[in-house]
Amino acid sequence: MNSPATPKARSELAASPGWLSPARWRRRRNALPASGRIGLALVLFWALLALLGPWVIPHPPGAVVSTTVFAPMSLRFPLGTDYLGRDMLSRILIGARYTVGLALAAAVAASATGTVLGLLAAISGRWVDELLSRLLDALICIPSMIFALIMVAVFGSSLPILLLTAALGYVAGAFRIARSLAVNLSVSDYVEAARVRGEGRLHIACVEILPNMVHPMLADFGLRFMFIVLMLSGLSFLGLGVQPPAADLGSLIRENLSGLGDGAAAVLLPAIAVATLTIGVNLLIDGLADHGRPEGGGGKA
Amino acid sequence: MSLHSGRRAQAARNGAGAAAESSADNHPQVLVKNLRVVAGSPGTPSVLVNDVSFAIARGEVLALIGESGSGKTTVALSLMGHTRAGCRISGGSIEVCGTDVLSLRPREILEHRRRRVAYIAQSAAAAFNPARRIMDQVIETTMIRRLMTGSAAREKAVTLFRSLALPDPQHIGARYPHQLSGGQLQRLLAAMALMSDPELVILDEPTTALDVTTQIEVLRAFKRVIGERRATALYVAHDLAVVAQIADRVVVLNSGQVRESGPTMQVLGAPRDAYTRTLLSAVARRVAQSVAQEPVVATSGASSRPPGEDNRRQLLLAVEGLTAGYGKANDQGLPSSLALLDISLAVRRGAALGVIGESGSGKSTLARVLAGIMAPARGTIRLQGELLEPRMERRSREQLRRIQIVFQHADAALNPAHTVAHILGRPLKLYFGLRGAARDERIAHLLDVVHLDRSIAARRPPELSGGQKQRVNLARALAAQPDLILCDEVTSALDAVVGAAILDLLAELRRELGLSYVLITHDVGAVRAICDEVAVLYAGQTVETGPLQRLDAANCHPYTRLLVSSVPELRSDWLEGVASASPGPAMPATASSKDLCRFLPRCPVRIEGRCDQQPPPLNRTQQGAQILCHQPANRR
Ligand SMILES: Nc1ncnc2c1ncn2[C@@H]1O[C@H](COP(=O)(O)OP(=O)(O)O)[C@@H](O)[C@H]1O
Ligand code: SF4
Ligand SMILES: [Mg+2]
Predict the structure, then answer these.
(1) Spatial contact of A277 and A98, defined as CB atoms under 8 Å apart
(2) Which residues of B touch A291 (CB under 8 A)?
(3) Which end of chain B has fewer CB atoms within 10 angstroms, the N or the C?
(4) Is the pLDDT of residue A26 over 90?
(5) What is the mean pLDDT of residues B610-632?
């Protein structure tokens, strides 16, 4: 097996790729199963719409542009009109912007905070661990919807408050998962090896433990994102979320509920939008979690 | 290779046992022809098994041997009409008792597995449901299929327990899996498999996970029950010496191809294939001293020095009165369950000390205490005279650098998220402040030293084989330029051939870098290969310490003798010749705080009225060996 150093081997050595090397990601996408690719397409689709929304809407989203309410799909109003005669396509495009932006931001905040705190609890002494665990346990006791209602009742409904509410409501769950992951990893042989080597706590946390938490936390993130979308939609449905005339996807469903009996597009389409978005995110994340790991080498038979 | 017709007759001639002669002209029980198993996409399949053919006559035991990854289990599973996920049988034919297995419909395959074939897996512990009693699990399948009444099934199970030499056959069925040892569970699994009188028994590495002393009993039980029932069996193993005890014929598999096949004695005695010879030499080295007279430690060079010079060499590690354990400490500051009791050891610079004992004897605990991962309750550790803090957090970085530990499971000891370059680079940066080109150069050099290709630096542990991982592990320890390396079972997860190569590497590094080792292992062969001193651990106590030659000394400790004689030899009559391993009731081999000889319940030469009354004295020999035993030297 001994071989002289080839220039190629040298350059590979010098490159010393980190765990997020392009090669690794390339392999990851190649390995993505069909369901994961469908998820990726759905997520990209909604992200694109949210991004381009303001530039492609055919009508101003707040303006009453038709005299017919719940108009069927037509060339002028591709997705029909809502209960006031506003253009549905424009409203969905702008609504997706609220839902995707707000829910994504809140889910990222919840997962990131949970991961950092969980890691901290696992590697610090007993006191820090106890304190953090009890604090977040208290938070987890309150059902997230009730927590959201309290927050909105106290602070009113504004975008920053909604973001904070959604993030706080789901940080405790993320923390629990992150902590138990980190505790398990911190007794593994390679962490033990790092300790015997004399590594500091920060190195052990960030370099030895954290990279191995990314995959499971990503899977957890998908779940959390879905819950947050549902919670925000629920809040909007109760009229406590994004305030009119602006509307996220959940508000759109509520506004147009009276059209449900007629099977109006105005109520079905936002519902389908919420469904496809959450399904897309979860398919993508499951695909990443299952097939993102590097190919196993020849282990024991 | 093709199947020649004379083989069946030949099998019968070569002692396939009484069963074979009655059926010598019958059709073979199992007939595999040109079997081919592939994995991956149809466009670019990778061939796992290629053109494998063999036959097993009724009542014959055929061994399938090869290292891990050679396709043994793939072949064995295909006899049950099963392939692992992602694999498929793409050619050949399989016939078991006249049935063409490959043409069976899914329903029929289930029936085939239930009725005709029984499979005994490597890890018995994983095969039992921990929440249910043994008996219920053993008779479960017969009950489901209403083959027998409950009481008849229970009676049959007890008969099987008895044939398998299980203790207390009448009542053992009432116990739960966690109340039994690994060796007992393995035999119970065999009982479960034999309940339905299968026409073919497949044993997949059934003793690989066991201690040598336990392995003997399981092997004996298997051999007996197979003989009694005239079962037709396929025995999958990587250990030739084990196979020699039990198989009538052998098929040697390598990279999915048959390298050699024939009667056991012929393959082991006069191998024709080069690969078979490699396998054989890996085993021969393990038992070399007890079979041939040549000294095996010739590679180390150290043992050929006169003992006087050894003593003059500088003392590197001195351990005194080490006591450690797990659980809450009592009033005297001793933990509730003791894993090590009053251990004293010394390692000289450039020497290698082998610590041997069965699993649970406290070997890993010793490594952890020496490394400072775990603080001892009592005792001191000195490195070149300098007292080491019990806990690693309080040891200086320099002290940490000088003692490196290589963990048992190479898999678990390497962070799967990092490249090999990162893993090796870290100690270089930490201890020597190396970065950039200087560090890369050193990494490349380290890979050279452990005989790995330099391109491996860019890979991650999951992309490496078991042997490669263990080399990386070793390279990481070497990166610190240590004085002493603690090796905890470094070869036990590896095949004989790969493990032998790692041992060679250890010996070479010691010669060239002047390293010292504490080699912790349950494998007597590994100690013979590279150590010049040995400490035998039993239930947390060193029952014997001294030069390597103690292993074969006439006056060694009774436990040392048991351990050494339990290592299987290539002779097929070895199993009959070796003394029974445990006469008394086997007590769990863990430490307790009583002072009596811990080996007492298993000792064949115990002295009633003395061994069970007084703690054993420490005898010293002129060569500096120490033996903890009541028996006078000439009677041990
Ligand atoms: N974390 C632990 N907690 C309690 N007991 C343990 C622990 N680890 C090991 N032991 C016990 O200590 C004894 C020695 O174990 P170990 O050092 O792992 O032995 P070996 O390496 O020789 O197999 C055994 O009886 C084992 O059950
Ligand atoms: S002290 Fe007695 S029981 Fe213990 S090993 Fe010696 S003879 Fe056997
Ligand atoms: Mg161990």
Answers:
(1) no
(2) none
(3) N
(4) no
(5) 87
